[in-house]
Amino acid sequence: MQRKLPAYPIFVKDPYFSLWSPSDDPTASNVVFWQGDEKPVYGVVVARGEKGVRAYSFLGKAEGAEPMECREVKVTAFSTVYESECADFSLRAEFLSPLPPDDVRVFSGPVCYFTYELRPKKPLAFTVGLFLHERNVYHDRPAQGVRGDVMRCGKYETAYFGSDEQRVFAHTADMRAADWGYMYIAAPACFVTDGKGLARFLSGEAPAFGEEDGMLIGGADARPADGKAFSGTMAVAFDDVCSVFYYGQMLRGAWTSGGGTILDEISSALDGLEGVREQCRAFDEKLKALSAPYGEDYYSVLCASLRQAMAAHKAVYDGKGRLLFLSEECGSDGCIATLDVTYPSMPLFLLFAPELVKGMLYPILDFAEMPVWDYGFAPHDAGVYPYCNGQYYGVKNAAEGKYRRCVDYKKGNHGVLPHYYLYPAGSGLYDFSRQMPVEECGNILILASLLSDDKEFVGRYLPLLKKWADYLVQAGAVPENQLCTDDFAGHQDKNVNLAVKAAVALAGFAALFEENGGDGSAYRKEAERRAALIKAEGSPLPLSFGDKGTYGVKYNLFADKLLGTGLFSDIYEAEADCCLAHMNRYGTPLDVRKDYGKSDWLMWAAALTDDTDKRKTFMAALGRYLRETPDRIPFGDWYDTAAGEAQKYGGGLMFRNRSVQGGCFAPLLMDKKSGRGAFSVKKL
Questions:
Q1: Exposed, middle or buried: residue 433 (CB in 10 Å: 0-12, 13-18, 19+)?
Q2: Which helix (H) or strand (E) holds 620?
Q3: Does pLDDT of 683 surpass 70?
Q4: What phi and psi values does residue 168 have, to the nearest 5 degrees?
Q5: What's the Rg (C-alpha) of the chain?
């Protein structure tokens, strides 16, 4: 069986409902949460005949079940499909996570599907079962344990379980699941049982209620020994009860806006399966058609990116009725609505659902208008997931003085961060040396310029945008020593790529300002002056001003090309060629200092050239990374371009399951701008 991905999405919907198989053979390991903790899901089939009972597993390491042979795995935009075989039958098992970015009602829903088609080789009676272990509903086992039950809901039974202590919003922390919420499974028959009960099920008996050996909930579908093939569906859902703390508001998932309960949602999802499946199939066919000029490698990259990028967000409506689309910066502090995560992810969302980009920016814009943020530049983030309570990055975390209780969870404190948004002006909460002033101002000005058609949105925040454009003007053409989004090697002085971003941001704002009644000529003139200064450094552009003979991936040129500001149009091809000239097996290093690269920026660089063959070379390198990296984690975006290994920080693997993989859609977004391909975007 040919490997497709480093890890395969099983059920993925949001940062707390994200289950993956880290093996090509789905029975070789247990299902894990995105950050690696085991969250066992057991897929089993019990076959009964005159000669007795045999139990088989097709997902997870179910003790007492014989692993089926997985002959093939297929990955589409929203499905992972396994074709498995044994002596008694063959099985097609599909795990569908409907996340179409252009349908908020569907993608915000908490329900995923398990569908199956069993083809008997012998006239046996079969029972298909799916069981979820209690570790799916807590991060660290709560003292009061887990409770669950079964309910009859129409044609299906529904089982649920959750931690006995529902400590909603108990922590702000990265790399961990919720300690609250309830997991559900709906099937023709359901059970609340334990490890011993599962053993009874595998032996052909009914599983009794119990919790002696780890509580399980399960669903089953039993069929008679008529020799006929059959198919069926089960639903798995996670209800987080309350989703996001937004500057004092407790917000539930967007799917709740219609007033229904989780049981209503599960029932509706099961009744509407065929419509959802057709919607996902049509989207997948569209993706195939759009990526066809670039071949299978690129289609694989897009399939690896789409569910991950969508499910690293949570969609909610705030008290003003605005749709918020909030990312968790998975594997990097866990910040929420991080601006320099939104920026690289935006090609996916601009391509299919531009309104989601607004939903990503509202938390930054809202916080920037609060008294505590009395800085001339844009914030980095809005807190740590699931709390929008003010920027966390760069908080001083002082051990003494007025603010000594600021939480630094890197030292083991996983509590709830203070409500920074309530602090008054002049509080001085932030360490300036850890800010990214040019980076974040450039990011938000470029993103706002890309949303220029929305006059109401732009007009509402134009004073802030002008403030940040003026900051870039005052900061100067050559950036001083400071952090940027690629801060892996620390601060950098005179960063040319950062200077490119600032110039493009000013040109974009100039056009935006004029479209809204202002005079943008001074901003445009300054952008052109800076572009000339940058290009005077020679081609290819160096890493830093005056650093002749060096190179770096100048991915920010993509924003210039996308906006049509045209400051650097004469060097796009040369910079793409430079990336190709320095390419290793799995892509181009970010710059001359290290071999590590970024998958999102690699695809931004690919979009700089209009040559299809050159683009395919970039895409082939990323396709190889997916197939060959030794790290079996969700699509990692920061990795060694020579060895294919994910980068490590603080002893662990970094940057897995991040929304920045939306940046892999950059070539398609450029095709849309260029009029290549058949695109249509519906309003959310």
A1: exposed
A2: helix 612-628
A3: no
A4: -60, 135
A5: 26
Around Cβ 548, how many Cβ atoms within 10 Å?
10
Peptide bond into 589 cis (omega under 30): no
Report the distance separating Cα 183 and Cα 149, nearest Å.
11
Let me know if 580 is exposed, middle or buried by CB neighbors in 10 A (0-12, 13-18, 19+).
Answer: middle
Judge contact between 314 and 181, C-beta under 8 A.
no
Find the angle CA(405)-CA(428)-CA(342) to the nearest 5 degrees: 90
Q: Which pLDDT score, from 0 to 100, does residue 489 have?
A: 74
pTM: 0.96
Phi-psi region of 443 (alpha: psi -120 to 50; beta: other; left: phi over 0): alpha
Helices (H) and strands (E) in the chain, counts: 16, 27
Burial class (CB in 10 A: 0-12, 13-18, 19+), 235: buried
- If pLDDT is split at 50, 70 and 90, which confidence band does 138 have? confident
How far is CA 185 from its chain centroid?
Answer: 24
- Per-residue pLDDT of 558-591, as tens digits, reads 999 999 999 999 999 999 999 999 999 999 999 9
- Is omega for the bond preceding 386 within 30 degrees of 0, making it cis? yes
Would you say 367 and 400 are in contact if contact means Cβ atoms under 8 Å apart? no
Strand order, beta sheet including 8-14: 8-14, 17-21, 32-33
Backbone angles phi, psi at 192, to 5 degrees: -115, 120
CA distances 120 to 73, 85, 230, Å, are 20, 10, 9
- 395-443 per-position pLDDT tens digit: 886 655 555 555 555 554 567 888 999 999 998 889 999 899 999 999 9
Q: Which of 264, 268, 332 is nearest to 113 (CA)?
A: 268
Q: Is 475 exposed, middle or buried (0-12, 13-18, 19+ CB in 10 A)?
A: middle
User: For the packed helices 339-352 and 437-450, what is the interaxial angle rounded to 10 degrees?
Assistant: 20
Mean pLDDT of 18-35: 97
The mean pLDDT value for 147-151 works out to: 94
DSSP 55-94: EEEEES--TTSEEPEEEEEEE-SSEEEEEEE-SSEEEEEE
d(CA 394, CA 401): 17
Cα gap 667→603, rounded to integer Å = 7
- CA angle, corner 474, sides to 393 and 544, nearest 5? 70
**What is the spatial distance between Cα 156 and Cα 187, in angstroms, rounded to a whole number?**
5
DSSP state of 208: P
Query: Whole-angstrom Cα distance, residue 551 to residue 496?
Result: 10
End-to-end CA distance of the chain: 39
Structure-block tokens of residue 96:
């569908």
Q: Identify the weakest region by mean pLDDT among 250-254, 408-412, 465-469, 610-614.
A: 408-412
Q: Are 539 and 579 a contacting pair, CB within 8 Å? A: no
- Inter-helix orientation angle 666-674/599-606, to 10°: 20
Matching residue, tokens 């975007």: 681
Percentage of the chain beyond pLDDT 90 is 84
Decide: helix, strand or coil at residue 8: strand
CA 264/CA 680 separation, integer angstroms: 32
